[in-house]
Amino acid sequence: xxxxxxxxxxxxxxxxxxxxxxxxxxxxxxxxxxxxxxxxxxxxxxxxxxxxxxxxxxxxxxx
Length: 63
Prior knowledge:
This protein has 63 residues and is mostly helical. Helix content is 73%, strand content 0%. The chain is built from 2 helices and no strands. The chain is elongated, with a radius of gyration of 18 Å.
């Protein structure tokens, strides 16, 4: 009787790995948009600071 878990070895590798990559890409885009929204709501006029913060955030996401 199955407990709800599955053996990943039985799944095709391309579908699973491409699905994981697609999910990561979607979450990265969501995180980037959320970060921009927060920064834009708290920092109104300083474009250089916004740019520096976004660059650092994207750098941290790549790790």
